[in-house]
């Protein structure tokens, strides 16, 4: 599972923070160019995040062994092919946008899980802290970017509302990101810090004229807490 967390971080980085509007538009208007740029970003993220594990053997396919670099080239090609046939990427499906988004993300993450080599964790403080940092970073991207897209698509399926404005989108992301990070603190202060964070951001929402007590924000808060509890279990009790 160790390499999988590295792969997951690379996947989330390439598919969300680094999946720019330019790439999104090109994937629709010029699929070859859009997928090529996205594939390059994806491959670079994989290579950087998995740097310590590039020289070891990851898996054998049809009798051919693949080390880290070779596996990453193959994973990049598979991801580009997946994105090419992923009709949910244009976000214009009627009634099933959220379902298709989750389905394709699970498929792509499952491929990474199957490709990740099984290696033993060497019990060193630095490597353990690095792994915990990577797991926390995974949760942070999920709590901000992934949940923002998922909730928007879910609401779009039922109310057909457009993508939120720039202010609403990033105010919500900062809010959920801060809530998530406050819950990563030791248990004695995590609850207090998270309550203070939520209370302070209530006034930010009011200032920005964004509804704090809305279905969208309630969903974001609950799902962020769920992600935070999952990550807390991993970093405090599993690793």
Structure description:
This protein is mainly alpha-helical and 239 residues long. It folds into two domains: 1-119, no CATH class; 121-239, no CATH class. Helices cover 74% and strands 4% of the residues. It has nine helices and two strands; from the N terminus they run αααββαααααα. Helix 1 (2-15) packs across helix 6 (125-159). The longest helix has 35 residues, at 125-159. The model has no long low-confidence stretch (mean pLDDT 90).
Instruction: Write the H/E string, N to C.
Output: HHHEEHHHHHH
Structural class: mainly alpha
**Mass-distribution shape:** flat
* Main β-sheet description: 2 strands, antiparallel
Number of domains: 2
Relevant terms:
239 residues, mainly alpha, 2 domains
Secondary structure elements and their pairing?
Blueprint: H1 2-15, H2 21-29, H3 31-49, E1 57-61, E2 64-67, H4 68-85, H5 97-115, H6 125-159, H7 166-182, H8 187-207, H9 215-238
Antiparallel strand pairs: 1-2
Brief write-up:
This protein is mainly alpha-helical. The chain contains 9 helices and 2 strands, in the order H-H-H-E-E-H-H-H-H-H-H.
């Amino acid at each position: 599972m160790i390499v999988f967390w590295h792969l997951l971080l690379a996947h989330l980085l390439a598919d969300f923070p680094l999946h720019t509007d330019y790439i999104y538009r090109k994937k629709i208007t010029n699929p070859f160019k859009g997928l090529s740029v996205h594939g390059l970003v994806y491959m670079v993220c994989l290579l950087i995040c998995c740097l310590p594990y590039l020289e070891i053997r990851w898996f054998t396919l049809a009798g051919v062994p693949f080390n880290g670099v070779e596996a990453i080239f193959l994973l990049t090609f598979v991801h580009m092919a997946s994105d090419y046939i992923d009709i949910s990427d244009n976000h214009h499906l009627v009634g099933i946008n959220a379902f298709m988004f989750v389905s394709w993300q699970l498929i792509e993450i499952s491929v990474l899980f199957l490709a990740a080599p099984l290696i033993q964790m060497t019990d060193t403080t630095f490597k353990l802290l690095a792994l915990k940092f990577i797991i926390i970073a995974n949760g942070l991207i999920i709590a901000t970017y992934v949940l923002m897209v998922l909730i928007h698509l879910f609401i779009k399926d039922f109310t057909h509302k457009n993508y939120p404005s720039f202010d609403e989108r990033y105010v919500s992301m900062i809010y959920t990101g801060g809530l998530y990070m406050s819950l990563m603190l030791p248990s004695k202060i995590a609850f207090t810090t998270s309550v203070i964070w939520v209370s302070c951001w209530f006034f930010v929402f009011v200032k920005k004229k964004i509804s704090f007590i809305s279905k969208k924000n309630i969903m974001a808060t609950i799902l962020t807490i769920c992600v935070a509890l999952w990550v807390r279990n991993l970093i405090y009790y599993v690793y």
